[in-house]
Amino acid sequence: MFRYTQSLNSRRAVLGQAQKQRWQSSSSATETAVEVDDQVQLPQLRSLTRTGTPLRMLILGAPGAGKGTQSSRVRESFGITAISSGDVLRRNIAEQTVAGQKAAAAVASGLLVSDDIIVDLIRNELGKITGSWLLDGFPRNIAQAQALDTMLEANNQPLNAVVNLRVSESVILQRIVERYVHVPSGRVYNLTYNPPKTPGVDDVTGERLEHRPDDNPESFRRRLEQYHKLTEPLLEYYDKSGVLTSFAGDTSDAIFPQFYAFLDQRFN
Q1: Parallel, antiparallel, or unpaired for β 187-190 and 179-182?
Q2: Percent of residues, the chain, with pLDDT higher than 90
């Protein structure tokens, strides 16, 4: 674990300012000067918060709120390990792990993957990480939240941040209608915000993209009702714990500066 000396703090301040400038489209010359400064890498400097404690954070939000986009930007800016529960599930099914085989059997039977299986997958994933992490897509209900708390507190590593993304439902609906997915990887495209380079084709593999049958207004409203039913108790749960913060905006570019400022206070 590194010491927070004056020299290190000054470097972190420089790197933090450089990251802010990147999101504000600053000159490439400034970026280059920072990147080669003593070959210090940003993730190394930001593996711990200013208190010396790894950040253990959840990101919540309705379907289509942009959780994946925010997770990617946070990972790139702060060197935090970003975990998507959906990606973890797909990988374990593909690798035919014990939990993955149980999940595949449930999916094949048209059933929801049980809380126990999901909790096992997340426990295994978090066990591989020693630094800061951000978890997207889990927990989805109070039972999962309580299981996560029990898991973390057993190692004296409780959650210390939960971020909720608040985006208007009309904006989310438009995103959902225009959303296309590369199913094997989970990569998501939007015809307006981040269209594929070739229409209907994944940028990385060249494979066909799919538009989910339930990505339509009627299905979305049902999913949103279900989301509110499950998530509102979660928000109350984390609010009472004193770890909940909400950011509002109708675009990822409107929300990310708020997210960045929140994390920047913890790391610098």
Answers
A1: antiparallel
A2: 45
| pLDDT, position 198 | 94
Q: Which two tokens stand for residue 58?
A: 């959840």
pLDDT value of position 266: 83
pTM for this one? 0.73
The dihedral built from the CA positions of residue 214, 215, 219 and 224, taken in this order, carries a sign that is positive
Q: Which residue has the higher pLDDT, 44 or 128?
A: 128
The catalytic site residues sit at 67, 140, 179, 212, 223
In angstroms, the CA 263 to CA 268 distance is 9
Torsion of CA 234, 235, 241, 247, to 10 degrees: 140
pLDDT at 106 over 60: yes
Residue 48: helix, strand or coil by DSSP?
Answer: coil
Closest CA to 164 of 75, 259, 77, 92: 259
What is the C-alpha separation between 56 and 266, in angstroms, rounded? 12
- How far is the C-alpha of 267 from the C-alpha of 12, rounded, in Å? 8
Separation CA 169–CA 43 (nearest Å): 35
Average pLDDT over residues 48-74: 87
User: β-strand 81-84 against 133-136: which pairing, if any?
Assistant: parallel
Report the pLDDT averaged over residues 87-95.
91
Answer whether 128's CB lies under 8 Å from 58's CB: no
Peptide bond into 257 cis (omega under 30): no
Average pLDDT of the chain to the nearest whole number: 80
Q: Exposure string (b/e) for 42-66, b if CB count within 10 Å is 16 or more?
A: beebbbbbeeeebbbbbbbbbbbbb
